[in-house]
């Protein structure tokens, strides 16, 4: 690396730091680095970009976490967003990844983090779960999918079925998927009570869908994700739950197999990568 390249990288690094943390740039350094405008000092010129940068990133987070924005309200959400952006600045060429660490950051910085589980505030648990759901939903927009390839039909052999690549199995402490879709429908739902919820989030034909499932179905799908073999997962589920294998297989064939195939839960192993 030559001196010119090193100087350019240093200037770029300084510019990014001043945009992320405006209070960290002193007036003398700004004046020595930037030219003034016709009617504005170097500091005033830089301030325009500082405000615009933060507002743009805030808006991006609002778009990625619309239900969290609704639940917290503009003022509190913006406070969280500003602090998050200070600690976790954008580190990717695309703003698609801007909110990647937001749910984890909320959990790590909750004000009751030092309290025992029974002493923690339930609304924070809800907000962490809600942000987690929104991130799970958002990341599947651009995840590797199965578009352009054939989907299995009812005649497919169970031994060939595996979960499709653009699918997430998620467990939450609150019905956050319900809350999210209420907000997106233009309604103003109340904070729900704590109720374990199990969901499948997937993308099929470039559309993202969320399917609530029971705890038992969630466990079965988790086994399929591990074993990549439906028949073996049915047998393992029967052993875990204390049901007969015949009953579990009958439930699979008569209750969930066709709806899940139609929804796009599964692809055939031989079709992956074609």
Q: What does this entry show, briefly?
A:
The protein is mainly alpha-helical and 274 residues long.
Strand order of the largest sheet: 2-3-4
Cα-based radius of gyration, to the nearest Å:
24 Å
Structural class by SSE content: mainly alpha
Instruction: Report how far the terminal alpha carbons are from each other.
Output: 42 Å
Topology diagram in text:
Elements: H1 3-20, H2 27-33, H3 42-64, H4 66-72, H5 74-87, H6 102-108, H7 122-139, E1 161-163, E2 167-172, H8 176-184, E3 197-204, E4 207-213, H9 215-227, H10 230-241, H11 245-263, E5 266-268
Features:
mainly alpha, 11 helices, elongated, three-stranded antiparallel sheet
Task: Explain how this protein is built.
By secondary structure, the chain is mainly alpha-helical. The protein has a domain at 144-274: Outer Surface Protein A, domain 3 (Alpha-Beta Complex), CATH 3.90.930. It is built from 11 helices and 5 strands; from the N terminus they run αααααααββαββαααβ. It has helices at residues 3-20, 27-33, 42-64, 66-72, 74-87, 102-108, 122-139, 176-184, 215-227, 230-241, 245-263; strands at 161-163, 167-172, 197-204, 207-213, 266-268. The protein has a 3-stranded antiparallel beta sheet with strand order 2-3-4. Strands 1-5 form a two-stranded antiparallel ribbon. Helix 4 (66-72) packs across helix 8. The longest helix is centred in the N-terminal third of the chain and has 23 residues, at 42-64. It is elongated.
């Amino acid at each position: 690396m030559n001196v010119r390249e090193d100087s350019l990288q240093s200037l770029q690094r300084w510019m990014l730091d001043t945009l992320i943390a405006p209070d960290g740039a002193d007036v003398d350094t700004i004046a020595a680095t930037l030219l003034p405008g016709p009617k504005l000092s170097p500091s005033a010129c830089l301030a325009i970009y500082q405000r615009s940068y933060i507002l743009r990133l805030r808006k991006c987070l609002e778009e990625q976490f619309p239900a969290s924005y609704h639940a917290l309200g503009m003022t509190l959400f913006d406070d969280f967003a500003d602090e998050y952006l200070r600690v976790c600045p954008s580190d990717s060429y695309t703003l698609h990844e801007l909110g990647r660490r937001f749910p984890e950051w909320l959990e790590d910085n909750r004000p009751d983090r030092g309290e025992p589980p029974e002493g923690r505030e339930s609304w924070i648990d809800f907000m962490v779960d809600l942000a987690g759901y929104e991130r799970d939903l958002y990341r599947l927009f651009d995840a590797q999918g199965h578009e352009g390839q054939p989907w299995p039909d009812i005649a497919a052999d169970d031994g060939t079925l595996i979960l499709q690549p653009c699918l997430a199995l998620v467990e939450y402490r609150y019905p956050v998927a319900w809350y999210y879709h209420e907000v997106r429908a233009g309604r103003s739902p109340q904070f729900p009570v704590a109720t374990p919820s199990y969901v499948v989030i997937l993308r099929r034909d470039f559309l993202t869908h969320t399917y609530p499932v029971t705890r038992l179905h969630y466990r079965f799908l988790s086994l399929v994700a591990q074993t990549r073999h439906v028949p073996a997962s049915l047998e393992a589920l029967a052993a875990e739950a204390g049901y007969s294998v015949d009953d579990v297989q009958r439930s699979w064939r008569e209750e969930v197999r066709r709806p899940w195939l139609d929804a796009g839960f599964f692809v055939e192993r031989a079709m992956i990568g074609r």
